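STRUCTURE REQUEST FORM
Protein name: Putative ATPase
Source organism: Kaistia hirudinis
Requested output: structure tokens
Priority: standard
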Amino acid sequence: MKLPLTAVSIENYRSLRKIYLPIGRLTVLLGRNGVGKSNLYRALELLQHAATGTITRAIVEEGGVESVFWAGPRRKGDRARLSLRAVFDDLDYAIEIGTPALDEAALTLAEPLVKAESLRATSGRRPVTLMQRAGPAAWLRGEDGARITYDEALVPSETALAAFRDQGRFAELETVRRALSDWRFYHDFRTDRASPLRRPALAVTTPTLASNGADLAAALATVKQVRGEMPAIAAAIHDAFPGARLAFEFPDGRVALGLQFADLPRPLGAHELSDGTLAYLALVAALSSYRLPAFIALNEPETSLHPDLIPPLARLIAKAAERTQIWVVTHSEPLAAALAEEAGITPRTVIKQDGATWIEGLKLVGSFAEEE
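Status: completed
Returned output:
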């Protein structure tokens, strides 16, 4: 079951001081370089890391707490904590990351630790807390409504969201964990000569494209083999390259991808395709796979594409948004305009306001001025 995301809240992350952003079926964020678009994208990736229990490791890999915490001036008394929140239709998950206190065990004084977590049900007249975590201790509400307390059950580097897996007793927690884990982030597909996109993939049924696109050939072939046809994929390819069609070969337990152009005598293998053509095929696979994730985030998908491919890309994204939620971060005004026309949405402009990343027209309460 897909769990629609309705809003995200981000506080004290890089250039994001505090923002509450509503999320629709298709969310398009447009902005120039340096305004913090990628920080919005990365904050969503950290929420997924919370579901897999790897958020503190991901922060260290980003450069540590000093690299990810709010980079601007702090008011006296401000806590140096990164706060993230995912708001769904009737569930609300939040997590806080900070540095060790003097009495907390950590490998270093700069190690990022999970300070707090919560999960609330918001469908009733009043929110009901289903999980509350503070440091190593946590309590969860069981299926009978009683609190179940776990003292010293967690180490500071792991999340309760990933640690407690009992669908029978904690169904809502499992629902949120699965929803966040199912998200896919696609950015900067490698198209160099050594790119895995250019190599045959293992011939294994692949319902969803991997984030790095390494199983491109298998993801596209799966739609053809399982469904017997692939009209959406064929239409997206014809839209970009009139008369072209995919071709597959299955050598030695692998599947090799080719593209047959109308004016060529034989299909071109993935290793022969231009960077832009290969990147477009990866986007087709990401947005037209056999099973789409509950949420897809695209970071500057126009990169390396010829301007002629922008309208087909917009149509591809708009079509995928009929099946799942799509989040697009771009600095391409033509792509944003094409998406507005194809999907009937309003792209939002990312700006810097008082040194912090902000969305033009966004109010503090999380709505846009023209919506009121």
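Reviewer notes: Residues 185-349 form a domain with the Rossmann fold fold (CATH 3.40.50.300). The chain has a mean pLDDT of 92.
Form closed.
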